[in-house]
Amino acid sequence: MAVLANQRINAQRLWDTLGEMALIGPGVAGGCNRQTLTDADSAGRHLFARWCKDAGMSMGVDTMGNMFATRAGTDPSALPVYMGSHLDTQPTGGRYDGVLGVLGALEVVRTINDLGLRTRRPIVVTNWTNEEGARFAPAMLASGVFAGIHTQDYAYGRTDLEGKTFGEELARIGWMGDEVVGARKMHAMLELHIEQGPILEAEGKTIGVVTHGQGLWWLEITLAGKDAHTGSTPMNMRVNAGLGMARITERVHQIAMAHQPNAVGAVGQVKVFPNSRNVIPGKVIFTVDIRSPEQGKLDLMRGEVERAAHAVAAELGLGCSIEPVGHFDPVTFDPDLVKVVRGAAERLGHAHMDIVSGAGHDACWTNRVAPTVMIMCPCVGGLSHNEAEEISPEWAAAGTDVLLHAVLEVAEVVE
User: Fold this and answer.
1) Under DSSP, is residue 332 helix (H, G, I), strand (E, B) or coil?
2) Cys bridge to 27: 112, 118, 233, 387, which one at CB 3.0-4.6 A?
């Protein structure tokens, strides 16, 4: 590896590739709206597949639409080293969330080709389907099926707000492959991602070596009250589902604050019925998102949120039901791979620090079936899931350089 110590990826090529992908499914404010299993998602997949073919890779697609582009190794019996993330975005998403991990991995292969290197192990670049969970909950759905967390039938039956199912939409856009999900075996998985938080930038660090990932619960709460006229219904005779949601929202915040440090919570998606200016809401459906890297805190917060919701509902005379719609336990990434990433950052001279991922990622599920690690680079102001999400070309290149050197070490360069 000494002769490769000064090798870097083609930073301009990576930046141009990120820019070209961002033209597919553009947002309204400079970001992207390339939600999973839409026509825009299909177009992005076709472009990615063409780039992989041009880089000499063979493409496989499983029955969840996960894409696997393989660069052959010299040992046909060796388990492959996987890289990648996701190309789908939030409805008002940025250009880099997930996308950097896929196209950075592609750039690693392009650079290895440019250098004329061979590796003993095959290298696979992966695009996981429906990481975001914005259209079909839960998040990380396809990698979850791959890792045996969900069944394929469960995933196919998930519906969007229009009642369309995951399975129907996957077939419609033409990306339902024939590989059995989870049949592939991995030697290791490395995922490059933007931080989606403010810590690296605030600390002046270029690389985050991700040692752990937060666990989370998504709880969908349904409150049932009574629709009534806002002008003619006395205050003491209302059964206001909107008021119940407001009180529960405040309790979620209080519960998260009571478990500091390393705990967060908020209400996210909200659906109000009948959603009219002059009608007291008779029904509200909303999601609570609670997270912590500590299992004990996560379990305590879930119980406290559920008890608080039922107590508020009882006080206001509301019906209350709670359904978990997303969950994973806190993650500890592979210590040996963490050392590989940390060593690569040090050899390349990048300021780095250990960090806990505040967001969920496909790596959280692959960690269940293979040694896994994540590499993070900063994003401006910690902003993500927003069209104003931004990173610098230098940050993108640094993260991808670390990925390059880590993958070459794990895939074993053949002299």
Assistant:
1) strand
2) 387
DSSP β-ladder status, 58-61 and 67-71: antiparallel
Question: Which is it for the CA torsion 57, 60, 61, 66, positive or negative?
Answer: negative
The separation between the first and the last C-alpha atoms of the chain, rounded to the nearest angstrom, is 9
Pair type for strands 58-61 and 81-85? unpaired
50-to-55, 130, 249, 370 alpha-carbon distances in Å: 9, 21, 46, 28
pLDDT tens-place string over residues 141-187:
999 999 999 999 999 999 999 999 999 999 999 999 999 999 999 99
Pairing of strands 118-119, 279-280: unpaired
Rounded to whole angstroms, the Cα distance separating 324 from 253 reads: 19
DSSP string, 288-317: EEEEESSHHHHHHHHHHHHHHHHHHHHHHT
Helix or strand run (H / E) with residue 269: strand 264-273
Alpha-carbon distance 359 to 363, whole Å?
Answer: 11
Beta strands in 66-201 (DSSP E): 67-71, 81-85, 118-119, 123-127, 188-194
To which residue do tokens 């405040």 refer?
A: 250
Q: Hey, what amino acid is at 49?
A: A
Q: Tell me, what's the pLDDT at 415?
A: 83
